[in-house]
Amino acid sequence: HVQLVESGGGSVQAGGSLRLSCVASRNTISTNCMDWFRQAPGKEREGVASIDRDGITTYADSAKGRFTISRDNAGNTLYLQLNSLKIEDTAMYHCAKHQTHYCDDAHDRWGQGTQVTVS
Questions:
Q1: CA atoms of 114 and 45, how far apart (whole Å)
Q2: What's the CA angle centered on 101, arms 19 and 47, to 5 degrees?
Q3: Residue ranges of the chain with per-residue pLDDT less than 50
């Protein structure tokens, strides 16, 4: 089974930046639709960004203009660049893999998450 491992989280001041990474144990980053989600304590899980097999990206309104999803096909790594961070961006960030290259398909793998704290 594919495993997803996130890293790159940390504590930053408002206005700062972080780059999150999600490494897959098998080459699925370039063939499947991939998402970044986040969940803050007491809040529902929120989809942040997606990238499909063709490289087409979509963003939540809260992420537009500040976050960028990308991937390194050769390295099998998914990224999320977080800029102009706000206190309300504080959450656990997870990457997730869809079953196929269709972003409408269900997810079948989730990473354990990496914590982002903005103060």
A1: 14
A2: 45
A3: none
pLDDT for res 1: 81
Q: How many residues does the chain have?
A: 119
Q: Whole-angstrom Cα distance, residue 52 to residue 43? A: 26
Q: CA–CA separation, 39 vs 103, rounded Å?
A: 20
CA distance 3 to 111: 7
Distance of alpha carbon 15 from alpha carbon 118, whole angstroms: 9
Contact 63, 51 (CB under 8 A): no
pLDDT at 75: 64
Got the DSSP string for 26-63? SS-TTTS-EEEEEE-TTS--EEEEEE-TT--EEE-TTT
Q: Using the 8-state DSSP alphabet, how is residue 74 labeled? A: T
Given the structure tokens 């495993």, which residue do they identify? 3
pLDDT of residue 27: 83
Q: Which residues contact 19 (CB under 8 A, 6 or more apart)?
A: 8, 79, 80, 81, 82
